[in-house]
Structures are given as structure tokens and as C-alpha cells.
Amino acid sequence: MQRKKIVAGNWKMNTNLESARTLANNISKALEQNPTETVDVILAPPFPFLGTVAGVAEEKYAVAAQNMSQHEAGAYTGEISADMLQSLGVQYVILGHSERRAYYGETNELLAEKVQKAIESDLVPIYCIGESLEERKSNQYLAVIEQQLSVALFDLSEEDFGKVVIAYEPVWAIGTGETATPEQAQEVHAYIRKLIQEKYNETVAEATSLLYGGSCKPGNAKELFAQEDIDGGLIGGAALKAEDFTAIIHSF
Ligand code: PGA
Questions:
Q1: With CB atoms 3.0 to 4.6 Å apart as the test, which of 15, 45, 68, 248 could cross-link to 221 if both were Cys?
Q2: Can you state the angle between helices 218-225 and 182-199, rounded to 10 degrees?
Q3: What ligand 1 atom has the least distance to the C-alpha of 239?
Q4: Which fold would CATH assign to domain 5-249?
């Protein structure tokens, strides 16, 4: 089975209503002029602009939230439910981004609940994993990856696991301008695929889309995407410029 190629833009806490609309429009126009049939494009704007960005999509891209509550509904002030996202036309949700893990205390256990909730609600989770600089330096990065995968994902049934997209984002490469080399990224991606194969089977492992994230930009995307086990990217900074983002999409 041919796995999906995906380029997703994580806008983080950037844009306002006007600039979000402009950015979405510019990306949409660029994709109209230079369409891509082989790559699924996803935009992840901040919560308040999801409806607006979904409104200008015209099927050129899908929309993702950057986080979601594990709860169904009720007295959880300030939280956003899967059902709310669904009702806005959102199809994906980024879960476990390293900034959520580091600044908001999200653990693998909590993320297991969020992933489950997303799947139950027909939202595709883009589950993020990745090691810190110390963990890389002390050569523990593969163990960290294994833990992040096994606790949050490996209790899923084979069918449900098949709905998940995984993003490998080494924390030391996010927003730092320092990118993992294609070899470093490929090593971890191949390891992730091997773990999936051991836990489930080869068919599932081969069908899972694995995205790379961390200072991915027009200048390095091609080399990264050329790696056997890299099926696309989760883009931060470079996703805020329509030109850069579409150049990354067309790197495939
Ligand atoms: P970056 O962010 O591309 O700005 O490094 C990637 C991410 O955090 O998803």
C-alpha cells in the first residue's frame, strides 16, 4: 500500500483573524496555480480561526487543530472538545507537540487518552514525538521514542492505529534553525517503522505516514523528503509564509 504524503503547517500562537485569512487565501491561491495531487496539505491555525481557514479551503487543504481536550464535554473551562472541532469542519488534530509536553505538562498517559478520543470522534491524530538535546547527547533518544509511542499508541487496535499519523520532531531542531540531518531523521523514522512492525505487522508499518518536523524549510525539505521513511513534514516557522510553505509542498 502506498502511504500518504503529507505536508502540515503548524501556525502555533501566530496570526490574527485578518492575517490568518490572508495566509490561508494565499496558500489556497498558490495551490490553485500549482496544484499537487500527490501530497495532502493540512493547515493548523489557532483555535479561533479554524472555522475561517476551513471556510477558504475549497478542498485544497484540510484543517487541523493544534490540541484538543480528552473529555467529551462539560465543566472544563477554557477547553476545546473533539465535537467542537468536528462541527467546524476540522479533520485532523495535532497531539503531543513538544511545546504542549514541555509547557503544559502533557504526558504520554494523557496523550493516550487524547488520541483515543480523537479516533472515536473521527479526527485523525497527528501524534508528535521527539527527544530533547540531552536525550540525544546521552544516546537515549531511541528509548524516548519507544516510550512515547508505546504508552500513547500501542494500546490501539490495529484498525485504530491505522488512522494515526506520526510526526518525529527532535526538540533540539524545533524553531532553532538547526535541522536534523537527513541521515539522523531517517534513522529515527526507520526505527519508528520497525517498532510499528514489531507491535502490529508489516502492512500496518508500511501504511503509516511518518512526518519530520524541526526547522524544515524550502532549502532542506527535498533532501529530507527523499529519505525512504520520511513521508512529509510538520512545518512551524516556514508555514507562516505562503511562498515557503508551498515551496516545501512542491519539494516532493
Ligand atoms: P519549526 O517548528 O518548523 O519552526 O522548527 C516545527 C514544529 O514545531 O512543528
A1: 248
A2: 40
A3: 3
A4: TIM Barrel (3.20.20)
